[in-house]
Write a structure and sequence with these properties.
9-stranded mixed beta sheet; 6-stranded parallel beta sheet; 15 helices; 435 residues; 2 domains; Dihydrodipicolinate Reductase, domain 2; disordered N terminus
Length: 435
């Protein structure tokens, strides 16, 4: 589903206040609060699940949620496109059979469909294009619902400010928010960051991360599609919907930097980027490569690069450099070198863990135990870190955290309706202003 009610976005404090108020140090499992058990599904043991956004990732999230807990039921699905709801449900039927066939979920279509899904559910899965995340998060928390929230959580600073406040409200209301920044739920990376944050490589001096991949999907424009429909169906290629791919995809890499820095945000960013290969209007107006340098208050620098270009060398790795050694992060090839030599070794007899499903397993366990997880701080910091990097590349300027988080740039379209919607021009460093 891709809908929004244009809820008001409020201001946020300075970087120091943002970090102080957001959370204390974030370790492997996210933030936890000791709270009383929640009541759900009319007092029964069944958790009612609602899916908002029925594309590929949303369908995958629903499947993972249903596989994660035997006592959950998919009761509602919503998307702005009827064909998306239909396709998603058919795919779930093929994959899960009776888990969704017994009592078919209600299906809602339209920009406001999220409201009906939220009303019907105990737990909502938010998997729309990222632009809509702030409004959907706010609506779900105000309605007292637990949340699985795909990454990223915003595409601009007003959205990030809204999410920051919403996640604080979730804490107050004892609601769970589990983020789709899935590497936080990967058993190898959890063990690795336990080592790093325990001092295995000493004090961190520098970090480097790469997310260089091939291009992704696109949907050819059909004659009957309005500008709005074309853009929403191809949301990856429009900054107002995706935040550009540095935000939509590379946020995974940047989140590992946030993890290593224990939730701290960088003080400034500078860098470059452009549109060299994907120059056709079919690809909207986003870039196809970025290279951003971030700096932290203690002098640590993080060097970030990402690329979506076909036919190029892929590289999805992360590297931490410390006073006592280094840490190379690449899924199962993760290792620590230096004074401490370490490589992950699975416990004897341990079963493989699917991090996508494990996110939901921990979400449901936390709800049932009355100890709701709230990943709100780090998911907001990492998202805003990506937005900040985009700002630096688009403008060609050095952008501070305080400038970025207080930016007035609001990417919300004039109206949520099927009709004409101008496509922004491609950002030009040195010409595109910082707002």
């Amino acid at each position: 589903m891709t809908g929004c009610d244009g809820s008001k976005r409020s201001q946020t404090p300075s970087r120091r206040q943002f970090l102080k108020n957001g959370a204390t140090a974030v370790l492997a499992g996210g933030l936890m609060s000791r709270l009383s058990p929640a009541v759900y599904a009319g007092g029964s043991d069944v958790l009612r699940i609602g899916l908002i956004g029925c594309g590929g990732r949303g369908t995958g999230a629903a499947k993972d949620a249903l596989n994660a807990d035997k006592n959950v039921q998919l009761v509602a699905m919503g998307d702005v496109f009827a064909d998306q709801v239909k396709s998603s449900y058919e795919n779930l039927q093929k994959a899960l059979g009776d888990r969704v066939n017994g009592t078919p979920p209600e299906q809602f279509v339209g920009f406001d469909a999220y409201k009906q899904v939220i009303e019907a559910s105990d737990v909502v899965l938010l998997a729309t294009p990222p632009h809509f995340r702030p409004a959907h998060l706010r609506a779900a928390v105000e309605a007292g619902k637990h949340i699985f929230c795909e990454k990223p959580v915003a595409v601009d600073a007003p959205g990030a400010r809204s999410v920051f406040e919403t996640t604080k409200l979730a804490d107050e209301k004892k609601l769970a928010i589990v983020s789709g920044l899935c590497w936080r739920y990967h058993h190898v990376l959890r063990a690795t960051f336990d080592q790093v944050l325990s001092g295995a490589i000493g004090d961190i001096l520098a970090m480097q991360c790469s997310y260089n991949t091939q291009g992704l999907w696109k949907k050819p424009r059909q004659p009957e599609w309005s500008d709005m429909e074309w853009q929403v169906r191809n949301w990856l290629y429009f900054t107002w919907l995706s935040g550009d791919f540095i935000t939509e995809q590379h946020v995974h890499s940047l989140d590992k930097m946030t993890w290593a820095m224990q939730g701290e945000a960088p003080v400034k960013a500078s860098g470059t980027g452009g549109r060299q290969v994907r120059t056709s209007p079919d690809y909207g107006h986003v870039y196809d490569h970025f290279a951003i340098e971030y700096e932290y208050a203690n002098g640590v620098k993080a060097f970030s690069r990402c690329r979506q270009q076909d036919g190029c060398q892929g590289d999805i790795t992360d590297h931490l450099f410390g006073t006592k050694g280094t840490c190379d992060i690449a899924s199962h090839r993760t290792k620590i070198s230096g004074e401490t030599k370490w490589k992950y070794k699975a416990p004897e007899g341990a079963k493989a863990i699917n991090m996508y499903q494990f996110e939901h397993e921990e979400l449901f366990r936390s709800i049932r135990a009355g100890e709701p997880i709230n990943n709100g701080h780090y998911m907001t910091v990492s998202t805003m870190m990506a937005v900040m990097g985009r700002m630096a590349a688009y403008t060609g300027k050095t952008i501070t955290w305080d400038q970025a988080i207080h930016s007035a740039e609001d990417l919300t379209p004039p109206a949520y309706e099927w009709g004409s919607l101008a496509m922004p021009s491609v950002a030009m460093p040195g010409v595109t202003p910082f707002v």
